[in-house]
Amino acid sequence: xxxxxxxxxxxxxxxxxxxxxxxxxxxxxxxxxxxxxxxxxxxxxxxxxxxxxxxxxxxxxxxxxxxxxxxxxxxxxxxxxxxxxxxxxxxxxxxxxxxxxxxxxxxxxxxxxxxxxxxxxxxxxxxxxxxxxxxxxxxxxxxxxxxxxxxxxxxxxxxxxxxxxxxxxxxxxxxxxxxxxxxxxxxxxxxxxxxxxxxxxxxxxxxxxxxxxxxxxxxxxxxxxxxxxxxxxxxxxxxxxxxxxxxxxxxxxxxxxxxxxxxxxxxxxxxxxxxxxxxxxxxxxxxxxxxxxxxxxxxxxxxxxxxxxxxxxxxxxxxxxxxxxxxxxxxxxxxxxxxxxxxxxxxxxxxxxxxxxxxxxxxxxxxxxxxxxxxxxxxxxxxxxxxxxxxxxxxxxxxxxxxxxxxxxxxxxxxxxxxxxxxxxxxxxxxxxxxxxxxxxxxxxxxxxxxxxxxxxxxxxxxxxxxxxxxxxxxxxxxxxxxxxxxxxx
Length: 490
Description:
- This protein starts with a strand and ends with a helix.
- β1 (about 5-10) and β2 (about 15-20) form a beta hairpin.
- Helix content is about 35%, strand content about 20%.
- Strands 1, 2, 3, 5, 13, 14 and 15 form a seven-stranded mixed β-sheet that branches. Strands 18-19-17-16-22-23-24 form a seven-stranded mixed β-sheet, with helices on both faces.
- The chain is built from 18 helices and 24 strands.
- It has a domain at about 5-240: Nucleotidyltransferase, domain 5 (2-Layer Sandwich), CATH 3.30.420.40.
- By secondary structure, the chain is of the alpha/beta class.
């Protein structure tokens, strides 16, 4: 067999990985880009910015050759971000990002309308950044653009279209759009009626590992790729990341300590009683899984804000080096990490963060530690609200950039009072898509075997009773912060 490419379209950068048919990483490449923020709370990007970044990263990835050996390409990326295309496939306006808050005032009325439909549970999951809410915003605020709308796509779907000329999406992206009926497994006619959408704009839904087609000849020529290289449908970044961690194949819970903090739990059926967004996943349109996802919106982005914007650090890889790991939990300082609102527990885009307990003896290291602890407390709250059984929590896998910090990993273990396993560096979404592309092309025989082959734990961090007791007391204080902040700011 040949090689495989995984592409992960992130919020601020695209990352590419090249693997062989055994899952060994041969090369990696990436390119960064910036979002447009025309107003407070608005976050947009021109889709062509993504494509140009992918092209630059592909050039770097294949600059030593090997493009002719590529058999398959898998594409993943940020969920919810929506692209609006006209009849010629040209972007009508900048894409609206998953973390855009412009629809916050539309949501109460929209939720009320949804309650009287045959899909009332969608009212529980729709939030700012949802494709459904953003389509309603487009219709009400930019009718001239809405009139030109021929097709909408979600982030990674756009790259698949640019590579193959085929429109489509997968069950993950559809089921988290607030436009899809998870029980009937179809686009919801009721939601289409509530928002007032024409049927023609919906993309076809297929299994994530199904083959869309081969890459366009001009793409093959441009990068020296095998003209027979196949592109699969792809999926959202969190399900993609769950593949090499064993979340889908081995039913492990996974926490992604990335730009946002995402906790993923595998369940047999949708669970709308617990907090969290239910994600329908299928690699072949025949066998279906349910992933329940909870989000801590400001996670790595909050840590980045503290180090870059406040401390002015350009490189903060070792920002935690001054923290004494043996004294974790002893400081009174608390950090509330809701810098950009909340989608899962409170469904409140207006709530904001806070430091509590500052004193003249507070140091920079204390505040850095408090940021890490606050995010860990946010995860602990998600675990409870999403009803993750303690026995399952013992198998927690942690991925994402923040997981590279040994201090942060120990904080997680102590706060949760449960083991936290740091995954090897390749346990990411792009790597998961390279594995899925290999499966689609016949290099691996099942989704379960992908997970068992790929799961690799770098280090297991175990809780320490002294620190766990300290953190339990601080966690009880943390739980009181929400009401206190709301009482002050309204």
